[in-house]
Amino acid sequence: MGKPEASDQPGPHVPVLLAEVLDALAPLPGARILDGTFGAGGYSRAILAAGASVIAIDRDPSVLSHVERLSAEFPDRFSFAPGTFSELETLAGGRVDGVVLDIGVSSMQLDQAERGFSFMNDGPLDMRMTPEGPSAADLVNTLGEDELADVLYLFGEERKSRRIAHGIVAARATRPFESTTELARFIERSIGRRPGDAHPATRSFQALRIAVNGELDQLVEGLFAAERLLEAGGRLVVVTFHSLEDRIVKRFFDPEKGAPTQSRHLPQAKADPLRWQPVRQAQKPSVDEIARNPRSRSSTIRSAVRSAVPARTTSYDGLGVPKAWGAK
Ligand SMILES: C[S@@+](CC[C@H](N)C(=O)[O-])C[C@H]1O[C@@H](n2cnc3c(N)ncnc32)[C@H](O)[C@@H]1O
Hints:
This protein has helices at 18-25, 42-49, 64-73, 88-91, 107-111, 136-142, 145-156, 161-172, 180-191, 202-213, 215-229, 243-253, 287-292; strands at residues 32-35, 53-58, 78-82, 98-102, 235-240, 276-283, 300-306.
């Protein structure tokens, strides 16, 4: 294993693209904003400071100490609902003016070795955001070779997925994988490491985390739930951390981006009326932000405002969602 990077040292969660999130949400005093990924409450706190009310959601029970702090400071304007943002229509408890989603893991989750999210810390191969369901170790030790390779390839864009899966299946026959560093070292030995590149286990860990937590299904369901919840003029702001997620958000906001090119021999299909108008074009963190908070480096923010066109039912068509183990 290489030396941990400075960015992977324990520390509080630093909200990513915070100024851009506030600019896109424009929370006015009196507005009701739903923060679907509360984490350490960085976004919620800033929205409350702007005078709006916040309904926060998180699926991870370990955020409760941060919830208590904000509840004590803003007893009349802050409430918390444990659960997933795919259920945000019911958890919102009424109409809201804006929804923000900051997809992915928090620094607390990454830095707590016992959660098993990071190969920089030795811990059990877990990666679950909630204490239920199969863990990463369950997947690594029980999926068939092809199923495992598909998870690594489709959810991690790991080109050497077949080689890694083949090696894992052979190795686990003698001894099941139990820890994060054990798996990371095994992947490094299987596919090698080029100087200057990210750790060779990065893509596989991303893939396993997505599978364990059903993250792409959550994203699709959360986006459509927000579309149904928000009325005309309501804003949806989404921060993502890798290209699979960003592609889903981009195509959700603008279905034309995911539509296959039409044959000129067929009658012209009628364009679907737009449910979303961009607030801003997609933005990346500034060089300054990346220097201050290296974990922001792969983030992208997209934001749009809801039109009066009736909401869609949830549909995966045209979003480019890859299908591997556990996907709907
Ligand atoms: C990147 S952190 C959010 C950090 C937050 N914006 C802040 O400023 O502190 C993501 C949080 O979303 C939660 N989360 C991830 N997927 C979720 C889902 N589907 N439903 C609810 N919470 C989720 C994680 O447990 C984690 O606490």
